[in-house]
């Protein structure tokens, strides 16, 4: 569990590689070209010499390239916009103690080193893509992953900043008629969200997410995939606030999540447990392709177990 909680960290704009093993650069050319295309500033430093940055482009030091080939690096980039990647335990500890995001690179020459409480490691740097580094940076700096974008919505991981919006949505009595509400104490709900981020997102990489309306950036609901104890299929869950109901948002979001589950997570079947009497959710599930498989009872409450097989 990470001890340092980051707030408002920023975008990833620079990656600093600090190597003991200089031959690593031979495996990085594809990654460096991609970073150049993404306009990510790159520094490569030796772990064993005095700090001396060399800016690389497509695997070639700029000092060896024509001056006109080098892009302008006039933008000042802070440590809070930087990800550090190293194969040296000393530098991994150094950056971690400073509260900065750092990833280790494991290879045959450093596996006996003590990489204290390292959260992310690379083993095949020649196969790493920018997206993986960016997602690790977001996770290490406590920022939410954006999961999906639909025509009208953005679906991202939940943050504690969403809690107030959730209380606004759940204040409408019809929302909790067929589902569990939030904690009465906001501090308890916030603590629950913090635990969910640490334990569910980090372990599974998915879960229940926050749904935002693109145009105004307003939180309009929650939706996602999770696992219910005692069941063998990932479960689709969703709630859309009353002001945005009957406009097709739930169908748009759920359809995209199911496709994401199939394409990115490799799921071939899904379930939805719909409380008896919740006809609106039942009709939505049927529209998505679910069929009622059986009725189940959980803690004295009857549900329709609806299943979608792809």
Structural write-up:
The protein is an alpha/beta fold and 310 residues long. 26% of the residues lie in helices and 26% in strands. The protein contains seven helices and 15 strands. The strands form three sheets. A seven-stranded mixed sheet has the order 4-3-2-1-5-6-7. The chain has a five-stranded antiparallel sheet with strand order 8-9-10-11-12, sandwiched between helices. Helix 2 (89-97) links the parallel strand 5 and strand 6. The protein is elongated, with a radius of gyration of 23 Å. Mean pLDDT is 88; it is low at 1-8 and 51-74.
Fill in the keyword field for this structure.
310 residues; alpha/beta; seven-stranded mixed β-sheet; elongated; disordered N terminus
Q: How would a crystallographer describe the biggest sheet? A: 7 strands, mixed
Q: Give the H and E element order.
A: EHEEEEHEEHEEHHEEEHEHEE
Number of DSSP helical runs = 7
| Residue share in β-strands | 25-35%
Report mean pLDDT, rounded to a whole number.
Answer: 88
- State the separation between the terminal residues, measured CA to CA: 36 Å
Query: What integer value in Å does the Rg equal?
Result: 23 Å
Q: How many β strands by DSSP?
A: 15
Largest sheet, order of strands side by side?
Answer: 4-3-2-1-5-6-7
**Which structural category fits the helices and strands?**
alpha/beta
Q: Are there runs of 5+ residues with pLDDT below 50, and where? A: 1-8, 51-74
How much helicity do the residues have? 25-40%
Shape: elongated
């Amino acid at each position: 569990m990470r001890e340092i909680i980051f707030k408002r960290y920023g975008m990833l704009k620079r990656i600093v590689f600090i190597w003991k093993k200089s031959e690593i650069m031979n495996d990085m050319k594809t990654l460096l070209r991609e970073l150049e295309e993404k306009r990510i500033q790159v520094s490569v430093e030796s772990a064993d010499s005095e700090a001396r940055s060399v800016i690389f482009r497509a695997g070639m030091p700029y000092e060896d390239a024509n001056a006109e080939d080098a892009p302008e690096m006039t933008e000042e980039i802070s440590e809070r916009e930087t990800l550090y990647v190293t194969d040296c335990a000393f530098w991994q500890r150094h950056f971690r103690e400073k509260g900065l995001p750092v990833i280790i690179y494991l290879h045959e020459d450093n596996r006996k080193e003590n990489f204290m409480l390292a959260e992310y490691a690379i083993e095949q740097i020649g196969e790493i893509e920018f997206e993986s580094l960016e997602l690790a940076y977001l996770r290490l700096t406590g920022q939410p992953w954006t999961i999906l974008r639909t025509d009208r919505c953005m679906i991202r991981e939940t943050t504690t900043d969403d809690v107030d919006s959730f209380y606004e949505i759940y204040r409408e009595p019809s929302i909790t008629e067929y589902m569990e509400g939030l904690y009465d104490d906001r501090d308890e709900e916030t603590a629950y969200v913090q635990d969910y981020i640490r334990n569910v997102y980090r372990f599974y990489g998915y879960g229940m997410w926050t749904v935002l309306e693109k145009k105004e950036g307003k939180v309009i609901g929650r939706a996602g995939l999770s696992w219910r104890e005692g069941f063998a299929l990932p479960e689709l869950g969703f709630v859309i606030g009353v002001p945005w109901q009957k406009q097709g948002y739930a169908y748009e979001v759920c359809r995209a999540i199911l496709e994401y589950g199939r394409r990115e997570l490799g799921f071939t079947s899904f379930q939805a447990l719909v409380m008896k009497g919740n006809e609106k959710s039942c009709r939505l599930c049927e529209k998505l392709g679910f069929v009622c498989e059986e009725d189940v009872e959980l803690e004295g409450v009857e549900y329709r177990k609806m299943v979608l097989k792809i």
